[in-house]
Design a protein that fits this description.
Blueprint (H helix, E strand, L loop, with lengths): L8 H4 L9 E7 L4 E5 L2 E3 L6 E3 L3 E7 L2 E6 L9 E8 L3 H12 E8 L5 E7 L8 E6 L8 H18 L1
Antiparallel strand pairs: 1-2, 1-7, 2-3, 3-4, 5-6, 6-7, 8-9, 9-10
């Protein structure tokens, strides 16, 4: 009547932490719920929540929602692929929450080669930013020279930004 979708029993059954609020939801082609909350995403078959600050990227190409978790090297984090039979506004809510979690980002080239993205993320309820280093796919994070440069850039960002 007012444009609201009826909440399926499967979505209602997703256990949230005290104080965590459902922002949107979708249902997979298998009938399983995908729930976005104010704190993160809950996928079918997982008791854990993927916090917004831990999402490197999310893409939506109907009917597939793909979410990549932040990892030390860009694009190598755990991936979730869910085919949504009913998406509602879930893809838009995911995009806006992931974008809103990024407070500051800068890509820095490293010498002699490669690069790193320094990201300051807002975590719900936290005053200070969470900081992440995400190395380019062609950069070896185990190289001590590159790692030292990346950590110097991170220290500078923390000092400057907070």
């Amino acid at each position: 009547m007012f444009g609201r979708r009826r909440l399926p029993e499967s979505v209602r059954g997703v256990v949230l932490q005290p104080g965590e609020r459902r922002a949107s939801w979708g249902v997979t082609s298998a009938g399983d719920p995908v729930v976005a909350t104010d704190l993160g995403l809950r996928f079918p078959g997982s008791q854990d929540r993927l916090d917004w600050t831990d999402v490197e990227k999310a893409t939506w190409k109907r009917p597939l929602l793909e979410v990549v978790e932040v990892a030390e090297v860009s694009g190598t984090g755990r991936r979730w692929h869910v085919e949504l039979a009913e998406e509602g506004d879930l893809p838009d809510v995911v995009r806006s929450h992931v974008s809103a979690s990024v407070a500051w980002t800068s890509h820095v080239p490293l010498s002699p080669s490669g690069g790193v993205r320094v990201v300051g993320r807002r975590r719900a309820g936290a005053e200070l930013l969470d900081w992440q280093l995400v190395y380019d796919a062609d950069t070896d994070p185990g190289n001590p020279v590159l790692r030292e440069q990346a950590h110097a850039v991170l220290a500078d960002a923390r000092r400057t930004i907070g």
